[in-house]
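Worked problem 6 (solution included).
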Amino acid sequence: MTKIRGQIFLIGLILLVTFSITKVSWAQGDSAATVINTINQLRSQRGLAPLKSHPALMQIAKQHSQYQASIGTWTHYSADGSRPKDRAYAAGFGNGATIFISENVAYGTNASIMEIINGPWNDPDHHHTMYNPQAKYIGAGVAYSGDLVFYTVDTGHYVGDPAPTPEFPAVSSTPSSSVFPTPVPVVVSTPNSDGSVIHIVGAGQSLWTIAAVYEISLELLNEINQFEGNAVLLPGDQIIIQPSYTPTRTPIGEPSATLPPRFSHTPSLTPDGTPIHFNPTTPIPTEDTPMEPRFQSSAKNPTVIILAVVISGGTMIAALVFSLRKKE
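Solution. The predicted structure is:
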């Protein structure tokens, strides 16, 4: 019997060690404070006054992020069907005065707020929420579901409250058209003589949309340009799409052996000889076409792994005890 107890103790010790070395991964995202600071930094670049956090907006943004995390997707409606303006009124924003509210929502796998701003929020409608010169207050909420991070931003103002005063008078006279630029479609650049491909950033373009049009991964684009993953692009910036290469002599009419096919001057052909042209107008995900595929995760759920270990360990113990009793 003592031998049986010793063996059971040994198996239990093995299970304990297994639990201790099991890596449990938690979702990585930015805090609500980081979200507000980031948006205010971007506002300052446009000559706009920073937004002040408001308790009522902070409350509804936090609760709405938690609700989205509970249902696993983004929405502007609450469980009771209320909209952002309804939620702001209910939370006491404006103290009964007429209010104006605009809301941004999005989620992604371990997504930072800059990835969200440069991705699904990079269009005039979402820019209005963040860069509206009439807005004075902001609320931000962050919630998690597995490795998904859910962001909510609510901005607004109300009648009777003093209008915000720009803190950057040197650039406050910038025309409003520069605050809400018309997005310029990303057009593939022609390779240079040394094989390099350089893209000049246009208004409304983000690193994510540029990567999609050039059919290059965001990770590789960050690596080539030595970005940290939260780069803010401004019109006129130069992005390296393809580094230069050492040219080799290539017969006329044949694709270069050192230049990727997608940048070759020789068009690809279909089986019947028809040239294949790249379409630079590939649609970019918006709120109407959520970006779940981009944030699809293949990570194993640590809870499932732990349960599997516990079940297998219990089976081993039961089998061992049965075997030893049978021998007795």
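Discussion: The beta strands are 52-53, 99-109, 137-145, 148-158, 197-200, 238-242, 268-269, 275-276.
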